[in-house]
Amino acid sequence: MSRPSGKTDLLQGTLDLLILQVVSLGSLHGYAIAQRLNQISKEALEVNQGSLYPALYRLEKRGWLRSEWRIADSGRDAKFYSLTRAGSKRLEIERTEWSRISQAIALVLKTVS
Amino acid sequence: MRDDELDKELQFHLDERIADLMGKGMTEDEARRRARLELGGVMQVKEAIRDHSLRWLIAELWQDGTYAMRTFWRQPGFALVSILTLTLGIGANTAIFSVVNAVVLRPLKTPNADTLVRFITTTGVSTSIAGAQSFDMWRQQSKVFENVSAHRLEYVNLTEGAEPEQVPVARVSAEFFRLFRASVLNGRTFDASEDRPGGPLVAVLSHALWARRFQSDPAVLGRRLSLGNVPYVIVGILDSGFDTEQFDAQPDVWVPFQLDLHRIDGGNLFTVTGRLTPGTTRAAANAQLAVAVAAARRDAPGRLSARTVWTVEPLRDAMIGSIRPSLNLLVVAVGLLLLIACANVSNLLLVRADVRAREIAIRAALGAARSRIFRQLLTESLILSLVGGALGLVTGTIGVRILLATYPGNNPFRLGDTTAAIPRIGANAAVGIDWRVFAFALAASVVTGVILGVLPALYASRVDLVGPMKRAGGSPGRRTKARAMLVVTEVALAVMLVVGAALLIRTSLALRAVDAGFDAHNVVTMRTSITATRFETRAGIAQLTRDAVNEIRAVPGVLSATATCCMPLETVWQLPFVVSGRPPETLTRAGNLAYTGFAGWTFVAPNYFEVLKIPIVRGRGITDSDTADGRSVVVINEEMARRFFPTSDPLNNQLIVGKGMRPEYDQEPPRQIVGIVGNIRDTGLTRPARPAMYVPVAQEPDGVTALNVRLLPIVWMARTATRPLAAAPSIEKALQRASGLPVTRIRSMEEIVAESTARSRFDMWLMSIFGGSALLLAAIGVYGLITYSVQQRTVEIGIRMALGASKNSVGMMVLRHGMTLAGLGIIIGIAAAFALARVLAGFLFGVAPRDPAVFVSVPAILAVVAFAAVWFPARRATRLDPIAALRQE
């Protein structure tokens, strides 16, 4: 299924990929996803939290994430996201695509320099 | 719910962040501030999500739409058939709705029309026609009515200036203009003081006449207008666009009624409308009228029958009452047709669900939710029905225009209160598409799309992923049963519509075959208005008739000519009579005064019976020798002879006509019955002949003439050797020469007879179109089902053949399957039609609702059609090659 196009397609797409990756390792709530991204990228990536939740909403709508209200460590209710089967397929596709693009970019950059 | 959840989620995020920051050493306030900043404002986050959500929905719908279009493109046959079927169903509904809208739903043009009422008098039958006494009583009920007006349309000659022409003239009470909120362009309307017997002769012009005949000259006020050679002073001009919708023809001139309350007779008849006082309900007004009629009966005993009831009805209802039954019938018929169309398309979609089972299964496997698939399939149905609806709107509107164009137009000369024309649409109206029709077409399309799409979408989206991934759509058995049920329903509905059509067709045929009692072929008719003083005595009329008939007879091609006040099927008049010499106590049920009966009353010139070929059974007809100086004579018809002279010879008797009705009739001498003629159905082809009296024009009482000229033009009739309308122009010229009067309404007698049954023919044509369409759709449905079933059972058939079954037996199997379904549908349909047939009783003539011929022939027709539809697939089944069939698996 094709997705609706938007101006921030590339950025959206990248964020989507990152979220899917993070969630693939285990189900997390929104805050934890943001923390994890920050952690894993060694603080290089700080997700604009105003775009995190819209992205989570979008991914859930598309059927790549599934959500569930559970009790978090802190004892309160939180919404946990996990990857669906379709989502994991999507992750595969996106990873392959990402790697292809980044290789292409690397090639171009090599020739220029 | 979404919002609540989101709030909770964001709040959690915030709290966790604050906890973390505090853990890193910030104070609570600093932490809170920092966390808020980072999150970027809850409102903005919500906005972003909501934005997404709407964009998402639109995007998804767009996706569904384009996806649907792609699938239609791949299978254009399916899409085309579906759309055409829906165009037929929705188009027919839109067409009928646009008529219903124009007639019933559209508000009256008069502002504040909901308190406008019409006064109805019911003595056994209801009528809007009233007389002076009733009018007077109604006027006095000022507590409940704030305005009561009389009106009547007359046709008068404008005799000055360039060319005399006959114009419609409305005679109205002074309050009429206020009642209908007339706006005056120039001058004024009438004062109450002018609206009295003997009052001044003033007139108000319509805008159209002012523009046409006076070139919009503003100085026309105060000038004189000659109506029927009587001078009227013009006192006002109305605004254009004033349309009360009360008159069959738009009046060109308005004159005050000047009602003489002392005339008790049948000549003073008109229609009465009024307005309820603010706050008065119709029930309250009717209650008041009940009191009034009881009082009137007390005060003038014998004048009012004990059965008479006075009521008021909302004006619009009263105007459209006559066509309501027809509209109801058509609405039901067209609704059934739409159901059949839905069943057909639904079946097509169910078949398609089978075909697309694999595609749907794949989508489900890739994670599409069942609800999403369901919605997508429903979107497909909606697109089909919206496209069908749009096309249906266009074709429906065109169809309605064509239909109404062929419908006979207004007949403004009818005295009664029913016309052949469709009320509020009239002769030249274009039934337009206003917002209501558009909204109806839209709503019908959406509802249709949902109805026909729901079942297939439900079935198709039920995916079975467990088995080998080639089945989607639930168990095939269920779907087959659903399809079979749809076809049976279609056939049953089609049977019902065809039965209705057949009954109406038989009615039309019966009407055609009715012996009207006279020969309408080769007779041409035309009218002249005779409102002029020289025609207010019988000498004047007699002279005119004599001269004009002679002139007409001289025209080549004319075999005979005559004149009358009252043409059969158009104008009917009746008067009470007494058989001279009989004791007045020989009452029949008809009268409540000392009359012996009521009979039709017509003035005729000599040769009337010859022109219409009405047989003279005994004695003679009216001849030239029946002049004013001669003996007073009357000719009666067979029905009158049978009823009132069962044992005696009518030719030995005399009648005294009209005694007590009006002072002019008191001078009536007894009339000798000189002849008996055959019966004619002059009150309507569907009504039996009533007793009738014919009197020579030359012997009409003077006073009666004076009254009649106002209401009744003279109708001239001529029998021609060949086609009547061919000789019409010469006859018209001859008549104009002889009379000096404008001649109008040139029609053949056949046209007039046809017009009287126009409504019935209209119903018949529409029902036939719907019945035929239903039959076609049902046949297509049966054909489709059996064809598909054969396709599905290809393997089974192959096996049977391989095991030795003959081709014929295979064919018989398919035939049996198809005919069983069709037969079931026919039986259900006939049973339903049998139960409901009584509903049509009001539309029928000459055929009973449960007519055996219809109830036997319609199932036969359906069976033949179904057989034809099943035969082709059955034949294809016999041609199957068993080897190829088996290989298909």
What is the topology?
The complex is a heterodimer of chains A (113) and B (889).
Chain A: H1 9-24, E1 28-29, H2 30-40, H3 49-61, E2 65-71, E3 77-83, H4 85-112
Antiparallel strand pairs in A: 1-3, 2-3
Helix pairs in contact in A: 1-3, 1-4
Chain B: H1 2-23, H2 28-39, H3 42-74, H4 76-105, E1 116-123, E2 125-127, E3 129-130, H5 132-140, E4 145-158, E5 165-172, H6 176-179, E6 184-187, E7 202-205, H7 207-214, E8 224-227, E9 230-238, E10 253-256, E11 270-276, H8 282-299, E12 309-314, H9 315-320, H10 324-355, H11 357-365, H12 370-406, H13 435-461, H14 476-513, E13 523-528, H15 538-553, E14 558-564, E15 574-579, E16 597-604, H16 608-612, E17 616-619, E18 633-637, H17 638-644, E19 654-657, H18 663-666, E20 671-677, E21 692-696, H19 702-711, E22 714-720, H20 724-739, E23 743-748, H21 749-756, H22 758-792, H23 794-802, H24 807-836, H25 852-878, H26 882-888
Parallel strand pairs in B: 5-10, 7-9, 16-21, 18-20
Antiparallel strand pairs in B: 1-2, 1-11, 1-12, 3-11, 4-5, 4-11, 6-9, 7-10, 8-9, 13-22, 13-23, 14-22, 15-16, 15-19, 17-20, 18-21, 19-20
Helix pairs in contact in B: 1-2, 3-4, 3-12, 4-10, 4-12, 4-13, 10-13, 10-14, 10-22, 12-13, 14-22, 14-24, 14-25, 15-20, 22-24, 22-25, 23-26, 24-25
Features:
heterodimer, A: 113 residues, alpha+beta, three-stranded antiparallel β-sheet, 3 strands, 60% helix, 14% strand, globular, disordered N terminus, B: 889 residues, twelve-stranded mixed β-sheet, six-stranded mixed barrel, 26 helices
